Amino acid sequence: MARIAHLSDIHFGAHDPRIVDAATAWLEARRPDLVVISGDLTQRARVEQFRAAAAWLNRLRAAGLKILVIPGNHDVPLFDLVRRFARPLARYKRYISRDLCPFYEDDEVAMLGLNTARSLTIKDGRINHGQMDRLRESFARIAAAKTRILVTHHPLFAMPIGRGGELSEAVGRHEDAVQAACEAGVHVALAGHFHRTYAQAAQKMVAHSGGALVIQAGTATSTRLRNAEPQSFNWLHVRRNNAIELQVIVWDGNAFRRASHVDYVREGEAWTGRDVIDPPTVGSVAMLQGVR
Q1: Terminus of the chain with fewer CB atoms < 10 Å: N or C?
Q2: Structural fold of domain 2-275
Q3: Using CB atoms within 10 A of its CB, is residue 239 exposed (0-12), middle (13-18) or buried (19+)?
Q4: Which UniProt keywords are given for this protein, alphabetically ordered (predicted)?
């Protein structure tokens, strides 16, 4: 079984230091096999914010934790137009990682991160055809029994983001990206961006989308909350590519605590979920859209 902590939207520069310390302590105590950070390490891509993010990542690495990290749209300068269009991710590459599409593999899982942040969009993301080719090629050599996980900052699918269930914009080249993920045999798609926790089978969101389980992370440490949903991150136990446990770990004002625990099982391309504990009760994560 692979134990994966999935955090997103850290937003150094608009973060709560106490929550950062609590998340760090939680990770150091549980020692996941891999920490996945799906973008937006900074609030405005400023040097001091990247330095703070780098120091935090180094602390996790010093504790012996493995990390897969990708950039988000907030890691591209917004107001510095010259840097935004000439070298949009130069600071990210200097302080965080030069690898914008990292790959990780162990005995249980294979994971590919794809950079969806672009200069020409303020908040939306895109995937280009070269990245789609890399997605297919990276997973083509992976053993069939191994769990294939795709990580992006912007989700491939339109998400319900408001109290009324209004949908977000899907990632640019959405249909081609979904087809590539389907052809690559992606089992799990992790993303962030909307500061909202969400889990759903891809086939219930878009027709002909394969058998992926789509899992969104809320913001782990930012003070920029949406729909009154508290800070949170995901704790995944990947038993097999058709059996995954998802726990949502939520900040309750004093500590991070488990708010929900759902066991997902896939038969064919259909995922079903079963509550392992009582339904979530901490904060507004009771809105979690699980597969049932």
Answers
A1: C
A2: Purple Acid Phosphatase; chain A, domain 2 (3.60.21)
A3: middle
A4: Hydrolase, Iron, Metal-binding
- What token pair was written down for 157? 């699918």
Structure tokens, 24: 């760090």
Alpha carbons within 13 angstroms on the beta-carbon side of residue 11 total: 19
φ and ψ at residue 179, rounded to 5 degrees: -65, -40
- Distance (Å, rounded) from C-alpha 35 to C-alpha 56? 12
* pTM attached to this predicted model: 0.90
265 class by beta-carbon count within 10 Å (0-12 exposed, 13-18 middle, 19+ buried): middle
**Radius of gyration in angstroms for the set of CA atoms belonging to the chain, rounded to a whole number:** 17
Q: Tell which residue, 27, 224, 32, 28, has the closest CA to residue 109.
A: 32
Cα distance from N-terminal residue to C-terminal residue, the chain: 23
Q: For residue range 212-236, list pLDDT tens digits in order.
A: 999 999 999 999 898 789 999 999 9
Nearest to 42, CA basis, from 21, 69, 66: 69
The span from the CA of 73 to the CA of 39, in Å, is 8
Encoded tokens for 39: 């973008």
What does the block give as tokens for 88? 């949009």
